[in-house]
Amino acid sequence: MSQTKTQNHEAIEAGMRQATTNREYVDRFDQLNGTQIGKLFWIAASLENFSDLEEFLQEMEDGVWNEILPECGPSENEHFEEYRDDNQLIQLLIDHDKYGFIAEILTPECSNFRYDEDGKLTGWSTHHGSRTINYVYAETIEGLYAAIEKVSEVEFEYFKNLDSRKKQANNHPQI
Fold first, then answer.
1. Gap between the Cα atoms of 14 and 35, Å rounded
2. CA 100 to CA 93: how far, in whole Å?
């Protein structure tokens, strides 16, 4: 084996050792307060069998497009409606070199937050029957996880604040 091939092989092995394993992602997802992936598409792998992806894209609201894929969404792309009307939203992604991962993220409602005497969060209730739905796009698996983690953190903080406001309102009933 030539020196270059050996170096390439060693570099690939080193990169694989540094990469997060699927088992590590299982452990990391356990830390996301019940947040799950509802639907997941790897665009690069969906180009031959695209009907489910196209349906998913057609159902996404304009605001979602503008948030997760702004250069493709209707706010910045004057041809967006033409792509949508022609059922060519996958082509829109291709035209903008978007071959990564797009996911629907489900976060269960949390309530009844409990704190110890020092104000440290000790527990809460999770309600899987009531979920928020968010969408993310990322070019890599690690980027996808980071986006999901951010959604989970934002939603968890929202539910903590909502719970706090409800408790304050119950402690101070209006007359």
1. 31
2. 10
Tell me the average pLDDT across 47-51: 84
To the nearest whole number, what is the mean pLDDT of the chain?
88
Q: Which residues contact 32 (CB under 8 A, 6 or more apart)?
A: 148, 149, 152
| Strand residues in the chain grouped as ranges (E) | 36-42, 101-115, 121-138
Residue 26 domain-assigned?
no
Consecutive H or E run containing 11:
helix 3-18
- Give the range of the structural domain holding residue 59, as residue numbers without chain letter: 33-171
pLDDT at 2 over 90: no
Q: What percent of the chain has pLDDT over 90?
A: 68
Asked if residue 1 belongs to a domain, the reply is: no
- Structure tokens that stand for 165 in this block: 């406001």
The alpha carbon dihedral of 70, 60, 157, 149 has a sign of negative
Q: What is the pTM of this model?
A: 0.80
Q: Is 85 helix (H, G, I), strand (E, B) or coil?
A: helix
Query: Looking at residues 33-59, what average pLDDT do you find?
Result: 92
Lay out the sheet containing 101-115: strands in order across. 36-42, 101-115, 121-138
pLDDT one-digit tens code per residue, 135-155: 999 999 999 999 999 999 999
Is residue 95 assigned to a domain? yes
